[in-house]
Amino acid sequence: MNHAPHSEAHPWCAVAASRDVPVQSVIPVMLEELSLAVWRSSDGSIHAWHDRCPHRGMRLSMGDVAEKGLVCPYHGWRFGGDAQCNFIPAHPGGTPPAAARVRPYPAVERNGYIWVARQDTSVEPPSLPAGVTPVRSMHMPVSGERLAGFWTRACLHATGRFSRVESSCPETALFQSYVEGSGSILHGKWQSVGLGVDYVGIVQPTHGGTCMLHLAAQEPLSAEARLGLNRALVALRHEISRSTACEPKWGMNHECV
Predict the structure, then answer these.
(1) How many alpha carbons lie under 13 Å from residue 235 in its C-beta half-sphere?
(2) What is the spatial distance between Cα 23 and Cα 199, in angstroms, rounded to a whole number?
(3) What does the pLDDT look like over 172-200, one tens digit per residue?
(4) Do residues 209 and 215 touch, judged by C-beta distance below 8 A?
(5) CA distances from 253 to 108, 244, 247 (A)
């Protein structure tokens, strides 16, 4: 089954697997050109903030998560779950000014992933098939739109090589892929030794015309299927890198082998 990617972007985007942000931890995330600090408080709630301290512009993703909030690594300003500064070490008895606040972004957890929206929205995050579990997240050297386009034209065979297809992947292919609905959610099936595992790929646009691909698969997921999907993801990235390197450049003769 093949469907052309839809051009309208969903307001929500998965930026990390929930398991990758344990309690009292923070990670840096790129959502298009937006730098985010995604962190989990001591009570388990998730937050996504602009990755800049309002004091001196230090990256908050380099800080620590304390009992009462996220701590900037530069001067130790601490910000509570409401994004407001609640402690300044240089003035321990004072009340931080109201302007000492980080810009927050909507963030929720669903289907094992952390979803972020760039602005307030009444739209719900995308619903993934029931029973999926995160497998792996990997950077891809193309935009989400180009990845979705590639996804509909390639399938992995038992030889470990991808082939371009005009319609749909043959049933004998190990890694069968198609796009359904929005190009931000990709679908497919992994076939091996008579075992068919449905999977989805969630596209996160990052900076410089690249993207992250978050791969999740249907439970129960055997060790063989998990390993196969990991290998297929690596092979997919290699094929995309090879194909884009072979694209003709303006004013240059370029030959693929």
Answers:
(1) 18
(2) 27
(3) 889 988 776 566 899 998 887 667 889 99
(4) no
(5) 48, 14, 10
Q: Which domains does the chain have, with CATH numbers?
A: 13-117 (2.102.10.10), 132-245 (3.30.530.20)
Separation CA 164–CA 167 (nearest Å): 9
- In residues, how long is the chain? 257
Predicted confidence at residue 3, as pLDDT, reads: 37
pLDDT digits (tens, 9 = 90+) for 48-60: 999 999 999 999 9
pLDDT at 77: 98
Alpha-carbon Rg for the chain in angstroms: 21
- Judged on CB neighbours under 10 Å (0-12, 13-18, 19+), 149 is middle
Rounded alpha-carbon distances, angstroms, from residue 65 to 38, 70, 80, 100, 133:
11, 4, 10, 18, 27
Strand partners, 174: none
Q: Which helix (H) or strand (E) is 150 found in, with range?
A: helix 144-151
Report phi then psi at 178, rounded to 5: -160, 160
Q: With the C-alpha atoms ordered 120, 20, 18, 142, is the resulting torsion angle positive or negative?
A: positive
CB atoms within 10 A of CB 133: 15
Taking the C-alpha atoms of residue 226 and residue 232, their distance in angstroms, rounded to an integer, is: 10
